[in-house]
Amino acid sequence: MDRRVRRLLGREQTVRRRTDPLGLADVCLVGRQLGPRALQGDLHVNQDGDIGPVTVQALQRHVSAALDGVWGPETTRHFQESLNASSF
What we know:
- The chain is an alpha+beta fold.
- The chain is built from 4 helices and 2 strands.
- It has a two-stranded antiparallel ribbon.
């Protein structure tokens, strides 16, 4: 899992393991912005920090969802599938 995450994010990213109180390990990404501007940068749209119709349409185009400019359940499902498949 760590190698796959490093390959997805690039070698400059730091990945470390942590354990939650229940003893379940998960991956913690260090040094990676996960906000609106980072998403817009990945989608190659204007990085204004606002998630509007232009950003949503770019996301929908990227994850092969219907292009309606509204972030609804279908967009969320496609986005999650893309993240799970490490293809975002």
